[in-house]
Amino acid sequence: MNPHLIFVRRTALALVLFIAAFLTLAAQEKTQCNVKVTLLQVNDVYQFAPVDRGKSGGLGRVLTLTKSIKQENPNTLFLMAGDTISPSVESITYKGAQMIEAWNTIGLDYATYGNHEFDFGPDVLAQRVSESKFNWIAANVIDKRTGQPFGGAKRYVVREFGGVKVGLFGIVLPETKITSRPGENVEFRSPCDTAKEVVSELHGQGVKVVIALTHLSMREDKEVARCAGVNLIVGGHEHTLLESHAGMAPIFKMTSDARELGRIDLNISPDTGELDSIDWKVIPVDSTTKEAPEFAAIYRKYANLLAELAKPVGRTRVALDARSKENRTRETNAGNFIADSFRKATAADVGLMNGGSVRADSLIGPGRLTQRDLLSILPFKNKLVKIEVTGATLRAALEHGVSRSAEDSEPGGFPQVSGVQFSFDATRKPGARLVDVKVNGLPLDDAKKYTLTTTTFIALDGGDGYSMFKGSPVIIPPDRAPIDVDAVRKALGTRAIAPKVEGRIKRLDTAQKSGANCK
Ligand SMILES: [Zn+2]
Q1: What local confidence, expressed as pLDDT, does residue 10 receive?
Q2: Considering the entire predicted model, what is its pTM?
Q3: Ligand 1 centroid vs 216 CA: distance in angstroms?
């Protein structure tokens, strides 16, 4: 072989080895030198105690996890992406104060408002914010009187770690204006326009890593990601574990009630201040993690309430379907049991409950039922009232109950019934959807009088659009009728229940709304 060629080959090999060594070194250098900022994420947390009969969640366990992560990386921020002060069984009594105490105890850094933060009205929320030892950030929730974010929240914050800056701002669902009770002085500005403004301000301050802490639908999160050029969205609201991407931003959401702790490591270049890479992982929060001892004070303070809620009230041999979507779209065994208990408690011909008032949004049981289970299904403590209605009015009520079944994916007015069997076709026009209606086995007679028991929300206040009952003669007034939850507790009795879906409500059209794919 030509010695010259050997020399060239050797030189080339040496060069390759040198370049490889250099690249390895450079890569090491890069990972060694990046500033790691760790974000810890929860969202939609309504309970400080573990959920799922103790299996998951629990902020005492979260504290154990966050303490060890903060020890590992002091550059850690703990974020809550909205929805905490309502709804819950505890909040019936404490209006969310118990959650603020829990967050203060476990050292939350930043929260944004969720739609449910406004459920008790703006004054209660302002009070909760004033009790918070952490900061609320909400750039698009503006108090019209001051032009500033509502309740003393900040539009954004900038934090510096090892010479790099991280900016965080909050954005909240505009539909909160109508789905909750923010009052007339609170305005929800466009998420996209607000995000654009804030991001450009942050960039102006030399911040190159911008994080949106949001409580939006995924569709809106994607819009914000596309239009504002944020680097990351930490979101909530869906109660589903989601990982999406739009624009240049990954979007992360945990389920709810701290069943998981999201961990996002931002690897930021100290030279440019820019985000180099992201690592993400979902840490399950379950009984393998012990509760932090610091959290015991919260349990002591709320011990009486927790003991009261843990009291057994009955047993069920089947899972009770208290899921929101099911109760707003079709007959459920929980809806049947509730409507039956209304009817029986007042000896009425018909019992009726709007599906939107059946809460909990979960399957409960089979097994022992506690006071907490019951109040989670019926948290409003609605008064019942027995009225007399004509068959025509009952027909109008049922027509109304299915009048949004094709138009709305979860119409709150959908009726759960007792003493009534009906079928409907949602492809027909609203107001002409009932195909067949029977009351206790006999065809509905428009001229006949029937007695009906429902909540005062439906019968007297015209709630969920049930205005047809107004002015009906009252047979048992609310002050002599039980409240909803007491009627159900009485119906539970001493033997295990096993309510079924038994064909009281039949939907004849099978074409279900698929939903436009405009995400
Ligand atoms: Zn929400």
Answers
A1: 53
A2: 0.78
A3: 7
